[in-house]
């Protein structure tokens, strides 16, 4: 999950990052009411499409052998993968045993605060909109799955990555359902709205941009699930802690794969890759669920982001930390060979960005602190005060 805390999608005057190099950034325009946004794409600047020069498709063609050797091994064989049922009450047990397991689950979640469930639900909804992310990756020129079952290594990676991700939403959703702490109908509606709304991270059918985006996002999800794991442990649910920690480990593995692809692009095409990183950072990395809507709250994404910020699950500081981490991971400050003047300009921008973001975030933090608590919690996903015990039929 995560990011762009400044991105709004309400009926007010809204600032969105531009989606093209030739467009002025931070264009202001008026969006339609949220009821319209929920069923049709919001007003945006004209999208930039297919921004990768056609000859660069060859870069990805030439990397197919490398992808097979160096990226596909990041996938785990199905038989060695964990599955949601490893963490859930076993419905094939005798009825009493199954109910005991469900009761134990509900007892473990009793002391976790409502705010915790708000961020866990937001994370789960983000994971559950997986079809959107596979669609996004399959918009990318040179790496898309041309047939739906293509044998090419880029397509094999994308399908198997999707299959690994598919377990995350499944497991979290079932656990939340059994906990009795959340309103499943509101959650299901939110997921349906979100998948219908889609996402536009500004990747322009360009795999350079696409893999920078996924590198950033996988690290963001790693951080977020790691924090929900820590908080579950502190709140008395070691099983939920293990669930979130296990998902975080998957995200880390995915981050390693995607950032290795960008590392390779920096080696083969330093200027092209450096400019792609700068381009995505200028646009800001938008959270995949930024078009989230529950049918009621036009500011639900802002409210969810505010709770994630306040609980420390995913904060504005994390955004700058991720950027700094990736600058170090890709050794961006040290790259000299093969950089044109445009590439050096992009390098200066990216390498000097984190301190500037931190300054802006300090002001955002202050604003978040000043928000009244009730303004941050009108999220209908939570069943307030439900102990999780009273509704279980025994
Ligand atoms: Fe995930
Ligand atoms: Fe992932």
TrEMBL record:
Pfam families: FA_desaturase_2. InterPro entries: Fatty_acid_desaturase-2, Ferritin-like_SF, RNR-like. GO terms for molecular function: metal ion binding; stearoyl-[ACP] desaturase activity. Gene3D superfamilies: Ribonucleotide Reductase, subunit A. Keywords: Chloroplast, Fatty acid biosynthesis, Fatty acid metabolism, Iron, Lipid biosynthesis, Lipid metabolism, Metal-binding, Oxidoreductase, Plastid, Transit peptide. Fe cation 1 binds at residues 127, 165, 168, 251. It is found in: Plastid, Chloroplast. Fe cation 2 binds at residues 165, 218, 251, 254. Its cofactor is Fe(2+); Fe cation. The keyword Plastid applies. Its main location: plastid. SUPFAM superfamilies: Ferritin-like. Binds 2 iron ions per subunit. GO terms for cellular component: chloroplast stroma. The keyword Ion transport does not apply. One of its GO terms (biological process) is fatty acid biosynthetic process. PANTHER family: ACYL- ACYL-CARRIER-PROTEIN DESATURASE-RELATED (PTHR31155), STEAROYL-[ACYL-CARRIER-PROTEIN] 9-DESATURASE 6, CHLOROPLASTIC (PTHR31155:SF31). Belongs to the fatty acid desaturase type 2 family. This is Fatty acid desaturase. It comes from Macleaya cordata.
């Amino acid at each position: 999950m995560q990011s762009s805390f400044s991105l709004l999608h309400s009926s007010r005057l809204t600032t969105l990052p531009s989606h093209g190099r030739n467009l002025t950034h931070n264009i202001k325009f008026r969006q339609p009411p949220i009821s319209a946004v929920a069923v049709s794409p919001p007003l945006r600047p004209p999208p930039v499409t297919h921004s990768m020069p056609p000859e660069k498709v060859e870069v990805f063609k030439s990397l197919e052998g490398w992808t097979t050797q160096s990226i596909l091994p990041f996938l785990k064989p199905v038989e060695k993968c964990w599955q949601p049922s490893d963490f859930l009450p076993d419905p094939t047990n005798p009825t009493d045993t199954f109910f005991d397991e469900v009761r134990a689950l509900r007892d473990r979640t009793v002391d976790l605060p409502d705010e915790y469930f708000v961020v866990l639900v937001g994370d789960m909804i983000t994971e559950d909109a997986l079809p959107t992310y596979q669609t996004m990756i399959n918009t990318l020129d040179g790496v898309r799955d041309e047939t739906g079952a293509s044998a090419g290594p880029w397509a094999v990676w994308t399908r198997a990555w999707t299959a690994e991700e598919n377990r995350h939403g499944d497991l979290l959703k079932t656990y939340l359902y059994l906990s009795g702490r959340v309103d499943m109908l509101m959650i299901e509606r939110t997921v349906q709205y979100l998948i219908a709304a889609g996402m536009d991270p500004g990747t322009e059918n360009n795999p350079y941009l696409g893999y920078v985006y996924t590198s950033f996002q996988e690290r963001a999800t790693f951080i977020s699930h790691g924090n929900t794991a820590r908080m579950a442990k502190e709140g008395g649910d070691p099983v939920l802690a293990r669930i979130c920690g296990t998902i975080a480990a998957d995200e880390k593995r995915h981050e390693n794969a995607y950032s290795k692809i960008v590392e390779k692009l920096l080696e083969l095409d330093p200027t092209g890759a450096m400019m792609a990183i700068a381009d995505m950072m200028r646009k800001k990395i938008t959270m995949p669920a930024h078009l989230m809507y529950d049918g009621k709250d036009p500011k639900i994404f802002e409210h969810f982001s505010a709770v994630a910020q306040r609980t420390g699950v995913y904060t504005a500081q994390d955004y700058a930390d991720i950027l700094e981490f990736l600058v170090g991971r890709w050794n961006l400050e040290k790259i000299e060979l093969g950089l044109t003047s445009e590439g050096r300009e992009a390098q200066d921008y990216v390498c000097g960005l984190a301190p500037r973001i931190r300054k802006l975030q300090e002001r955002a933090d202050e604003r978040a602190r000043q928000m009244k608590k009730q303004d941050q919690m009108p999220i209908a996903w939570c069943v307030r005060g439900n102990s999780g015990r009273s509704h279980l039929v025994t």
